Amino acid sequence: MARRPSSTLTEAENRIMEVLWQLGEASVREVMDAISQDKEQAYTTVQTFLGILKDKGFVEQIKNGRAFSYRPLLSRAEARNQALKHLVGSVFGGSTSALAQHLLKDSDIEADELSILEAAIDAAIDKRGETGD
Question: Is the pLDDT at 3 greater than 60, yes or no?
Fold first, then answer.
């Protein structure tokens, strides 16, 4: 039985998307060259992943003469939101509070980062108060 395609980016897909987010638009060769700096990838492998990303609706394929280039249809922020929703739903039972508590309890968060988080929480509370939620 075939595996259902993931609605979030896999690690390999994310590497390719990082290149597209940086460049805005790129050919298979340009993507291959960029990701091969870290880990050597075959042209056909990159081409296959770009096809998968196109099928998932994450990239657009553009015909340039005899070749194709690819442009992201999903922003970095949208990808982050999808991944986070997936994580919260599958690992934390849909509870963002459980995720936040886990991060605070089981992570080495520096004092300055805690201050930033505290300010973000205060801003979220203030915003909720303004909208009546």
Answer: no
